[in-house]
Amino acid sequence: VIIDASRELSQDDKKIMELSKDKPVLVVLNKIDLPEKTTEEMVKRILPDKTIIKISALHKHGIDKVKEAIFHIVNTKIGSLDEGVVIAGERQKIILESALDCLKRAWNSIDQLYPIEIIEIDIREAWERLGEIIGDTVTDEIIDSIFQNFCIGK
């Protein structure tokens, strides 16, 4: 969840946070280089158990902490490949490699500070690839519902 700390929490921000309560979520307070209108404490009232990282994307302050936190969430929730994950066949291996490539592109886009819309493309594609393996699909309505609430400036 990305929140613009230089603005008051909007109803959309609050709704996204409420929907995120039971999910592995990282909260990023962006624009900490500007006067603060949304504080860490305000976010903690809604998401008390979530990790909150303050960043300035403009000045690249805190980006490494975000990367580390994402890695930790993925490693904790999904587990590492050393913990006995078995890939059943060549098809699954190809799909996993494709998903990994998508995530690497998204990671690179984050490093380059690309707009969230660009990053979303690769994350959505990785999600769809993983859905092919587990038989789960993500509809456009779900993705659109999440991303329609992000403002370009956040």
Characterize this entry briefly.
By secondary structure, the chain is mainly α.
SSE diagram, text form:
Layout lengths: L1 E3 L6 H9 L6 E5 L9 H7 L4 E4 L8 H16 L11 H22 L4 H19 L5 H8 L7
Parallel strand pairs: 1-2, 2-3
Helix pairs in contact: 4-5
Please tell me about this protein's structure.
This protein has 154 residues and is mainly alpha-helical. It folds into two domains: 1-80, Rossmann fold (3-Layer(aba) Sandwich); 86-154. Helix content is 53%, strand content 8%. It has six helices and three strands; from the N terminus they run βαβαβαααα. The chain has a three-stranded parallel beta sheet with strand order 1-2-3, with helices on both faces. The longest helix is centred in the middle third of the chain and has 22 residues, at 90-111. The protein starts with a strand and ends in a 7-residue tail after the last helix. The model has no long low-confidence stretch (mean pLDDT 81).
Highlighted features:
single chain, Rossmann fold, mainly alpha, 6 helices, 53% helix, 154 residues, 8% strand
Number of domains as seen in the coordinates: 2
The tally of strands reads 3
CATH homologous superfamily placement of the largest domain: P-loop containing nucleotide triphosphate hydrolases
**Overall mean confidence score, pLDDT:** 81
The order of strands across the largest sheet is 1-2-3
Question: Remind me, CATH topology of the largest domain?
Answer: Rossmann fold
